[in-house]
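Running co-folding for adenosine-5'-diphosphate.
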Amino acid sequence: MLKLENISKTYNHRHEPLTVFDRISYEMLDGDFISIVGPSGSGKSTLLLMLGGMMSPSSGKVVIDGESIYDLPPNRRAEFRRQKIGFVFQTFNLVPYLSALENVQMPLFLAGLSEVEQRERATSVLERLGLGARLAHKPSELSVGQQQRVALARMLANDPTVVLADEPTGSLDPETSAQVMDFFEEINHEGRTVVIVTHDPTVAQRAGKMLRLGDCKVPYYEQTPVWASVV
Amino acid sequence: MKLSKLVWKELFERKNQVVTGLLAILLGITVIVAMRNITFYSEKAVAQELDALGANILVLPKSVTLQNYYSADIQGQEFPEEYVNRLANSNIQGVDNLSPKLAVPVQIANHKFTLTGILPKSEFQAKALWKGAGIFSRPTGCGTVVNIPGLAPKDPKETLVRKRVIDTLNENEVLAGADVANSLGLKTNDNISLLGKSFSVAAVLPQTGTVDDSRIFAHLHTVQQLSGKGKVLSVIEIVGCCDQISKGLVSKINHLLPETKVVTIGQIVDTQIKTNQMMSSLSLVFIAIIVLVGGAGIANYMYANVRERRREIGTLIALGAGSGFVLRMFLYKAILLGLVGGISGYLLGTLLALLLGPRIAGIAVLPMPTLIIWALMISVIIAVSASYFPARSAARLDPCTTLQEI
Ligand SMILES: Nc1ncnc2c1ncn2[C@@H]1O[C@H](COP(=O)(O)OP(=O)(O)O)[C@@H](O)[C@H]1O
Ligand SMILES: [Mg+2]
């Protein structure tokens, strides 16, 4: 279970405080498939980073499987990310000087697996994504769609229980985008919680629940619709 | 994947930047290694030369410097031969061997050599006056001269090479130094004409690696006569007893012969040591410059590298890397850079020393494997300290800002 308890987030933007979230609470169940939508600057990425243990809220708690992750010491939180969280970025963020296989090995390496295990697991995940013939290719030698699949394989390598994706289809054509959504659906059916930030209504529609964020520059109490609405 | 593999791959990806970043430290290590290597072998050459000299006290004309003597450039200044008698007739204890010499330049077939007049030991003993002095009546051997087994007993002429004395030498005989014999094609019993007189070559001396190799030795009195200088000497080489030297032998001789300059080989060694100290303080200055310039080069490269890899660092953190991992990754890289700089600096420096040694110092230089330890230590320490702050800044990066910026 993934719980946001009374979360506030205030950025210091050029010495001006900018409140993106003000005392919000929300609960995601295990196996939920949730899309987060909202205008640019509404705090979608911020929310995702807070959920992933990457950015601490100004106040409030993020509780995953009973543990308040920002009360953990930083190295325990890093371990938590290694074990439970899978991130996907809009820009893929593949390591440019590593091959597809090595990119997928990275989370396994960080989790302390032996090189043999890393290679076996990474190969099988890449094969699952149809990249068995591209193991030795560097990101620059792959098409955009293939790069995104490497990023998906890397996210899946550690067998995460929570998958957080920030606009994963933002730079893909509709066809590839649909394939990626098939993949998210598939891993959601395996029991993983999937949270996707998106601009694309067709993508958002495929999730079981939709979270709509308002414009954070408008004071919280004036926002319509309210920060979260479940479809 | 391993940390080492990750770091290597990144280094290879950006080779050119690495080379630029390492350039200063690489050049610095190269120069240090070359300098140390050449200095070591020139010190060794000097030590060998001094050892081969055999004598440990020199009596020189007042105006002659140690360097003049050392470079065999002592012609033109002399003192009376009578000083030998004064010395021999004194009650000074601890003189094992005396070797009075007169050096004059000669030219044979476009080659310039030094004709050195020496007095064979038999003539000291022939003089009744000297016998009583007791200088040679004591058992010899308390001086520093070492007998090389097989050399001295085999051929009595060769004792000149190590003991500075020779038992007999006729008025019409010469001993040829190795280089002289080589360039003139001389063999034992050949005849040679010097300053208008014909000599027979009594022996060709073995190679010593010193100025002796380009000298021809003849009887002192013959040389005095042929050069027309009269009863004069350019040097008296003395093998003094070490414990007597420490009891003031030098100042006693100085007192006895106030018009001369009496020096010990120790003083020559001291001058050499001073030169070497200058060299090593020079290399200290050099090391300081390298620390600054090389360190700045590496720090600059590292900061640029961290800046360039912000997004990658953010991604690694999202994948579960802790700040300790990021720090380790950059410090490991620093160690690798240090190793690369140290090893290539050592190789380049050694190459430079091998090429330049014979040219600038006139000595043969061999690679010195011990220098690689120094090269690596200096290089790694500089690289790691210069990388510490960039590495720490990488470990402290806020992954969110690096991921949010497009
Ligand atoms: N590191 C930051 N410092 C200051 N302001 C930030 C920072 N990150 C985001 N913001 C601001 O917070 C708001 C929400 O940003 P973000 O979560 O990236 O929105 P979204 O992903 O929905 O476009 C924006 O107005 C943005 O300018
Ligand atoms: Mg965003």
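Result summary
The interface with chain B takes residues 45, 49, 52, 54-55, 74-75, 78-79, 81-83, 85, 87, 89, 91, 93, 95-98, 102, 105-111, 115, 118, 154, 158 of chain A (CB under 8 Å).
The pocket of magnesium ion (ligand 2) is lined by residues A 44-45, 166 (CB under 6 Å).
Job closed.
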